[in-house]
Design a protein that fits this description.
Elements: H1 8-25, H2 29-35, H3 40-49, H4 69-81, H5 88-102, H6 105-117, E1 122-125, E2 141-144, E3 150-161, E4 168-174, E5 187-193, E6 199-204, E7 215-226, E8 230-231, H7 237-273, E9 275-276, E10 279-280, H8 285-313, H9 319-343, H10 354-362, H11 372-382
Parallel strand pairs: 1-4
Antiparallel strand pairs: 2-3, 3-7, 4-5, 5-8, 6-7, 9-10
């Protein structure tokens, strides 16, 4: 399909990323998959490549580009190769927006240069055991010391992507009790140094998919967080979290579309090579019909993802539109990848084939960033229902 979202600069970036993946990732990806995470120094390579600094202001070592389109190219190219870049997506998609939106000039000077080089990796710790989508129900607390120099952080978080390698984590914690008329009040955000005393990484979680992405449980026991590491204002954290949900959900939607497109590519290549009953699998009418139907769904998902991308770059992507894009693209990817795996037969169930890994990786798209059911609730509310 003819697309208008990318220009020559984006396509040049695409060629660079494709060559980098072929040289630096594909040859060692099986090792990363077995280890359950990427090597820490890989993030330094991404920093050298400039990936972390695309949207960072030039004064802090970045390119100063105010656009998500380079990130979109990254989604397409990693999916096309059947690989992921570990927890680096959280670093840029979730970490950076909070720094840009909330950090003071002093904080930016301290954090952004090392953010850009990959020397300091960031993660976001929102979810807690037992709370899930109910962010306002969090129990982690941060109490200001009597002299006002630091906060004392206590509690735990789970499902924290990038949590093993993270050098700094944006931790959501209660600095005040919820109000009777507003249970969202009282949440604040802190940029916590993971080397702090009392900060510990629990289990590195064994997930169904996204095997190269380190996901962990975190615990905080009387962790002293300097007052100057508060992000934004006290007790307004819930509102900050809501501000960035649209971009997070766009990212999941676009990534899901890219995975679906990759699945069709993998299946097409496989059925053209695989023979059964003396003919290629591609020569059977059912194969042609299945792949044609999948391609039609991918085309529709691409249009939805591209439209959301343009709206996001223009600062016009609403919560309901982001929810709609996420719901549609993730559900399409679920159907398409399942059908493409079926065309692989028994080999589709083997992890040595990218379609199997893609099938497992894709499943979480309908859960994290807000479940499909939450997306439906948001859309219904926007309809006045």
């Amino acid at each position: 399909m003819r697309r208008t979202v990318f220009n020559e600069d984006h396509e040049a970036f695409r060629e660079t990323i494709r060559a980098f993946i072929a040289a630096e990732v594909v040859p060692v990806y099986d090792e990363w998959f077995a280890a359950g995470q990427v090597p820490r120094d890989f993030y330094l390579k991404l920093g050298e490549l400039g990936i972390f600094g695309i949207e960072v202001e030039e004064e802090y070592g970045g390119a100063g580009v105010d656009s998500h389109k380079y990130g979109a190219v990254l989604y397409e190219e990693t999916s096309r190769a059947g690989v992921t870049f570990g927890g680096s997506g959280v670093h840029t998609l979730l970490g950076l927006p909070y720094i840009k939106m909330l950090a003071t000039d002093e904080q930016k000077k301290r954090w952004l240069p090392k953010f850009t080089t990959g020397e300091e990796m960031w993660a976001l710790a929102m979810t807690e055991p037992g709370t899930g989508s109910d962010v306002a129900g969090m129990k982690t607390t941060a109490k200001l010391s009597e002299d006002g120099t630091h906060y004392v952080l206590n509690g735990s978080k789970t499902f924290i992507t990038g949590g093993v390698h993270a050098d700094r984590v944006i931790v959501c914690a209660r600095t005040a009790a919820p109000r009777e008329d507003d249970r969202r009040f009282g949440i604040s955000l802190f940029a916590v140094d993971t080397k702090s005393e009392g900060y510990s990484i629990g289990r590195k979680l064994d997930k169904l998919g996204l095997k190269t992405s380190d996901t962990a449980e975190l615990a905080f026991v009387d962790v002293k967080v300097p007052a100057e590491d508060l992000l934004g204002e006290e007790n307004k954290g819930f509102g900050y979290l809501g501000t960035n949900l649209a971009s997070e959900r766009w990212g999941i939607a676009f990534g899901a579309y890219a995975q679906a497109a990759a699945a069709v590519r993998f299946a097409k290549e496989y059925v053209q090579e695989r023979t059964v009953f003396g003919k290629t699998v591609a020569s059977f009418q059912n194969t042609k019909f299945e792949l044609a139907a999948c391609q039609a769904e991918v085309d529709a998902a691409q249009a939805v993802a591209d439209r959301a991308l343009e709206a996001l770059d223009a600062g016009e992507l609403t919560a309901a539109e982001a929810a709609s894009a996420k719901l549609f693209c993730t559900e399409v990817a679920h159907r398409v990848i399942d059908r493409c795996l079926q065309l692989h037969g028994g080999y589709g169930f083997m992890n040595e084939y990218p379609i199997a890994r893609l099938y497992a990786d894709n499943r979480v798209n309908r859960i994290y960033g807000g479940t499909s059911e939450v997306m439906k609730s948001i859309i219904a509310k926007s309809m006045g229902l």
